[in-house]
Amino acid sequence: MDKFHIRGGRPLYGRVSVSGAKNAALPCMAAALLTAETVTLHNVPYVRDCMTLRRLLEDLGATVLTPELRTHKISAAHVEVLEAPYELVKTMRASVLVLGPLVARFGRARVSLPGGCAIGTRPIDLHLEGLKKLGADVSLEAGYVVARAPQSGRLRGAEIEFSKVTVTGTENLMMAATLAHGRTVLRNAAREPEVVDLAELLNRMGARVRGAGTDTIEIEGVESLTGAEHTIIPDRIETGTFLIAAAITRGELEVKNCRPEHLAAVIDKLRAVGVEVEEINQSTLCVSGKDRAFVARDVVTEPYPCFPTDMQAQYMALMTQAEGTARITETIFENRFMHAAEMMRMGAQIEIEGHTAIVHGPTPLMGAHVQASDLRASASLVLAGLAAEGETLIDRVYHIDRGYEKIEDKLRAVGAAIERIR
Ligand code: UD1
User: Which atom of ligand 1 lies nearest, measured to the CA of 166?
Assistant: First the structure.
């Protein structure tokens, strides 16, 4: 298993470019199942989760051509299998995103239940409840969800109110509803930019989706969808990670190809901490942590547009370097503080009280041998390693490869001493 070796204490300087958003690319790739025509996606990040979904689409019978590394031409003209097997779903929960499109277009699908994962139980009950409202018959068979459209073969539009905001749940049902008979309204829908990106693609394919980006999404079902071409939005979590990388190393970075408007809550919080963040234009941010005193600021993770859970671990790394006490409250996922114990092994002073991590800073971090437990936790340990005195060895970096494109190359190019050990 690959490891990262980091020699910390070097400020990062220069320019870094953000890749496409994994969490937008995944639903957009799944949406290609809704049509027999070719869907072309640009700016798909070269990360493992996208490779996993590509493999799943190919296993179903779709063809995926990549004329360029980050362009996927997906044709689901011939789909022979309507099943997402356990082996794939267990490595990537987002595989469940094929459920909605398959039932909508082919009238049935069988998708393995994801089971537990490192950051909590993460059920898919809301996806299933929504599908039932759309008229699907949903049953559980040997660890698999089996969903069937009504006799007519077509789902029917419905009013669905989510009891909790769910990003992939909103995406799954939005896709399912595009081919349903009649009108669907999704209430308390996720407002994440990735949901909006998917809606844009769906509308390019001929769907009639309105309201994406608000908490009420209306979908007027159509008989069929067509091919389309679409460019995936920049990754706001990768952007935020680079902002903190510059701050925590007391360096200065120009972060290009990003969408500052998608991370307003993160930028506001970083400014409150004392990080200098300047919006150069609509796609470039300049961030500096040079000669600045950081002060601890509390944070609560909440659905968009609030502070994202996917930035919580990275923010915790920064708070170890801020003056005072920061309370970091995680409201989205249980069990998402595994990085705290690893940071404490590097010298951080953190207490966990239920859903809140209390970080006392600043404490000098010392390099150590640590273990990554999930995608964002790995990123936070890289950040801690960059800030630490001495050498840090991070085990299990396969987690980071799921969602960050060549992070070590990008960081090395701006002055980090980071190596991958194979
Ligand atoms: C997505 C993102 C992930 C991010 C998360 C929250 C993708 C591929 N992944 O994950 O990076 O951390 O949003 O912003 O886009 N829940 C239920 N029942 C359900 C569905 C969700 O109880 O049927 C709960 C979850 O356990 C969690 C909360 O709702 O507590 C939010 O989860 P959700 O938004 O669904 O996360 P994902 O879509 O899996």
Answer: 34
pLDDT in tens, 192-242: 999 999 999 999 999 999 999 999 999 999 999 999 999 999 999 999 999
Helix residue ranges, H only, 115-164: 125-133
Confidence of residue 114 (pLDDT cuts 50, 70, 90): confident
Both tokens assigned to 51 = 């490779």
Coil, strand, or helix at residue 338? helix
Query: Residue 126: CB within 6 Å of ligand 1?
Result: yes
Q: DSSP state, 233?
A: P
Contact, 361 vs 326, CB < 8 A? yes
Amino acid letter for position 47: V
Cβ–Cβ < 8 Å for 190, 167 = yes
Do 192 and 121 form a contact (C-beta atoms < 8 A)?
Answer: no
pLDDT in tens, 44-85: 999 999 999 999 999 999 999 999 999 999 999 999 999 999
Q: Calculate the CA dihedral of residues 198, 202, 204, 209 and round it to 10 degrees.
A: -100
**Ligand 1 pocket check for 23: Cβ under 6 Å:** yes
Q: Active-site positions?
A: 117
**Whole-number CA gyration radius for the chain:** 21
> How many Å lie between the centroid of ligand 1 and the Cα of residue 164?
9
Beta-carbon contacts of 240 under 8 Å, excluding residues fewer than 6 positions away, are: 263, 266, 308, 311, 314
Q: What is the pTM of this model?
A: 0.97
Domains of the chain: residue spans and CATH: 3-19+234-421 (3.65.10.10), 22-231 (3.65.10.10)
Which of 95, 164, 263 has the most ligand 1 atoms within 8 A of CB, as the residue to mutate? 164
Residue located nearest, by CA, to atom 35 of ligand 1: 166
Q: Determine the Cα–Cα distance for residues 252 and 15; give it in Å rounded to an integer.
A: 9
